[in-house]
Structure formats: structure tokens, C-alpha cells
Amino acid sequence: MNNSISPKYQMQLITEVDRTIWSLYGSYVQVRFYMEKWLDNYEIKEKQDDKIDLLSTLHSIPNKTLLKIAIDLGIETPDYIPSMPTFKNELKIDYTTAYSTFVEALKQVETNPSTAIGLANSALESIIKEILKDDQISQQVNGKETLHRLIKLILKEFRFLDEDLPVEIKTIVSGLISTANAIEKLRSEKTNFHGKTNTDYMVTNPLYAKCIINSVATVGLFLIDYYKNEYINNKIETAILADFPF
Prior knowledge:
Layout: H1 7-25, H2 28-36, H3 54-60, H4 63-72, H5 84-94, H6 96-108, H7 113-132, H8 147-157, H9 167-190, H10 206-242
Helix pairs in contact: 1-3, 1-4, 5-6, 5-10, 6-7, 7-8, 7-9, 7-10, 8-9, 9-10
């Protein structure tokens, strides 16, 4: 196995993959069938009784294959795509549609980067739409807005488009808008989410998909955290204060 990730992380990940596969499939036959979907037969290590030696097999395969298997099994891979555990935990409860879409995007990164980009775009759209549904928010949506339009709406609501902001904040805000616009254009023009011909360019490099997914996680976490701090927490504090008799 090559050492593109640390030996300590390899050991942790292999242990988790081994445990998860046995938990899901339970028998030597089923485990072998699953691993044969990923590996050629000669790559599978066996015990003396010809049963699959899963742990030895996992230790012998390339990191890239190990990471693909981990993602397929839904195992966290923070050393592979940063911010994922934090972002996914934020989505699980209050942003269930975005969560399921984003998890599917992660699964598609290596095998279908074009699809992964489209799904990541949809996940960010879902997050913003969910926030804008709050009755404290004045900006209204009709459900047909694109990501570029949605990001402008929520930034306006958060008052990040105000003229009196420091130039540094304005630069960051401009970057957020540009990022959302680029993700949307990639989805519309360079992925299989819209009809394409044989001569049209399509994203096929997983590195681009990883970049988009990291961008979506970063922007999504920022918007969720800001919304929680400025709207949810303030609403709770107001409600608590209203209960005081003075």
C-alpha cells in the first residue's frame, strides 16, 4: 500500500472498514462477493481453508481503493475530504434532504465526478432554501431559484451586501458569490445534469469534484453557523428573557 495517507490513519480506517463489512454481510461468502466488486480475484488474500482473509486483503490494497470502499460504506474519511464529519453532523437533524443528497455526492466522487458536482450543488441549494423558510427571515423564495440567486438572497438577508461593511468582508462575500456561481455553471454546463452531446466537455477528474464538495461544505457550514448564531440562538434568548417577571 502506498503512503499517501498516514500509517496511523490507514490502521484506523482499515479497522473500521473491516468491522463494517462483517457487520453488513456476516458470512465469508457474502464478504468475498462484496470485495470481488472492488478487486480482481488474485488481489484477495485467503486463509488456509480458502476463506477470505479480509483484514490482510484490506492491508494490501491501494489507499485509493480503500478510500472508495470506505466512502461506499458510509464511513467518515476526514483525511480524504476535510470538514466532512462536521458538515454531515450539522445536516443530519435539521437539513435531512441536503444530508441525503450530500452523502450521495460523496459516494459518487471517484466513480462519477460529474454527478457528484451536480448533487453537491443541489445540497447547497437545499440548505439555503431551508434557512430562508424561517419566519424571521424577510427574503422570500418561490422554489425555482438557482444557486446563484439563492446565495445572493441569503447574503442580503444576513446583511453581507451592506455598503458600510469593511472591504475585507466585502471581498469574502464577493468570493462566496463567485464560488456559488462557478458551482452552478459547472453543474449546468460541464456535468450530465443537463443534456450533453458527445462533443461537449464534461468533468471527469475526481479532483474537481473533491474541490466542489469541499467548497460546498465550507460555504454550507458558514451559512448554517451564522444562521444558528444570529437567528436560532437569539430567538431562544429572547424567549427565555420573556419569561422573566422583570
